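Project outcomes to date are best conveyed with an example. Our students and postdoctoral researchers have been running inverse folding experiments weekly, and each run begins with a structure described purely in tokens. The record below, which covers 146 residues, was selected by the lab manager from last quarter's runs and is presented without edits.
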């Protein structure tokens, strides 16, 4: 497990009042389904309570990892009149994210080993109650690394 600062996903950590709520949840991705992801050796990123984490999938068991169901990063953008606007980004490398080795990792202190760039995100509108349900829902039984 490696840590990458939230700055990599578009939040400016020098302006904490502008930081956005981000969560990771499993969702279906058509592009990953067509690419038969998740596969052994794939890199993916998730957001946790301590920041953005990059993982390498050591083994993708076919019966426990149905193709196309992969981590996604949901970012709350705005909330007005009972409707939230959020963005959904596939957490897989070479799909929604571009995960690269950080060339400064070996030579500088306190830099993350990976740089994470958003390649594609989709805007979604939903009711606040649906957003709250998404935040509260955690599928602890589905993991890519088991």
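After processing, the design step wrote out the following sequence:
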């Amino acid at each position: 497990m490696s840590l990458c600062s939230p700055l990599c996903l578009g939040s400016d950590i020098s302006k904490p009042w502008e930081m956005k709520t981000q969560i990771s949840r499993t969702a279906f991705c058509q592009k990953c389904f067509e690419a038969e992801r998740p596969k052994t050796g794939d890199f993916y990123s998730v957001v946790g309570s301590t920041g953005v984490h990059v993982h390498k999938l050591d083994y993708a068991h076919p019966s426990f990892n149905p193709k196309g169901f992969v981590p996604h990063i949901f970012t709350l953008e705005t909330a007005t009149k009972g409707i939230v606007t959020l963005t959904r980004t596939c957490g897989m490398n070479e799909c929604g994210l571009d995960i690269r080795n950080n060339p400064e990792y070996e030579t500088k202190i306190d830099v993350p080993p990976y740089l994470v760039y958003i390649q594609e995100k989709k805007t979604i509108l939903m009711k606040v109650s649906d957003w709250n349900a998404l935040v509260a829902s955690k599928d602890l039984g589905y993991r890519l690394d088991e």
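The helical segments are 30-34, 128-136. The CA atoms of residues 26 and 70 lie 5 Å apart. The training component of this project remains on track.
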